[in-house]
């Protein structure tokens, strides 16, 4: 196990003190990060929060829990332990030793991949900065802040790579990561989903389930990278990312559970007047966040992604478990497409070109697991209703289906039909107003808002009514 060095100003397990120039550069970036956190991070004043902090990167015991003032959180730089015999698992460099330095011919592509990943991390903090004002419980408030500080640490992870391996260009890109802001007209975040609002807790749970799950798959492809520092960075980030998805999964569990309780108690599907979120509204929020997250995977076909694969920069999800030649030069796959006669269908393309679709398929299967889980809650309550993932062509703004409209069942629509029907499939202003009307803060220990059920267990063995957050 590699312990973090907390004696340094910047906690790390990369022997930062041995590279004084890099250490000084990162220490000069640190005040800018804290200014960003103060101006764009959580707005609710707190004294301290029960947070986990990384102490080593080993399989066991890598996190320490305790009450921490958030501004004093020990953001740091942690890479998974190096495997000295690791070799490239795919592409034209397959079976060669992995790279400890950036190959000159791949410098700009690697930098771009790191910048895009890095840009998503502070974006979600910015999107969620006001949610503390409407937290349904101290337990949920603590989970929000844990997600926020870890997204801040993931920003540090990418900034370290930019500073350590990309010279002046990397340092300039690291500064830009703090200058772009989610939803800004002048300097928006790079990817569309990270400029959307997260105005309420139902949106937050959907975001942490669907959009953070996209992050899991993107990190999973970068973990396969032949550039070993990037691979090891992403491997550690995936440990923290799992908690973010837990927050989304169990958050939606608890919303569905409470909605079912109200449906049974009042013998009605319309639980809105009784302080709940109707299943129809849950489905609309699901439709929106899922479709927006599908866009994050890019176009169904991409020459760039094929080149990343061949070059060894970015692999497939679970690359080494795949039973093929790991070069894909002679393989083909079916990808989603609009056919020549305008129908929603599929077409065959070279496997290298279809890697975005390969990753999206992995993601869709994973998303379905959560929907199955929520439907079990409905089934166990004897409810006939079911939540569903919409068709991949629904509400798409990127890729093959960006130019068409379709129902959640995958039926093609005219623009006029879409405009008439979209209020049945996506959250309306009335839906959003109702959800926001429920967002009243509950800061008393052991209490929770009426629209969501309490969790089955607390954090780190603590009870639900533990004092997770001390407010100012």
UniProtKB/TrEMBL annotation:
User: Which SUPFAM superfamilies has this protein been placed in?
Assistant: Ferritin-like
Q: What is this protein called?
A: Benzoyl-CoA oxygenase subunit B
NCBIfam families cross-referenced by the UniProt entry? benzo_boxB
**One cellular component (GO) term of this entry:** cytosol
> What InterPro entries would the database entry show?
Aromatic_CoA_ox/epox, Benzoyl_CoA_Oase_BoxB, Ferritin-like_SF, RNR-like
PANTHER family per UniProt = 1,2-PHENYLACETYL-COA EPOXIDASE, SUBUNIT C, PHENYLACETIC ACID DEGRADATION PROTEIN PAA
Q: Which GO terms describe its biological process?
A: phenylacetate catabolic process
Classify the source by domain of life.
Answer: Bacteria
Which molecular function terms from Gene Ontology are attached?
A: oxidoreductase activity
| Gene3D superfamilies in the cross-refs | Ribonucleotide Reductase, subunit A
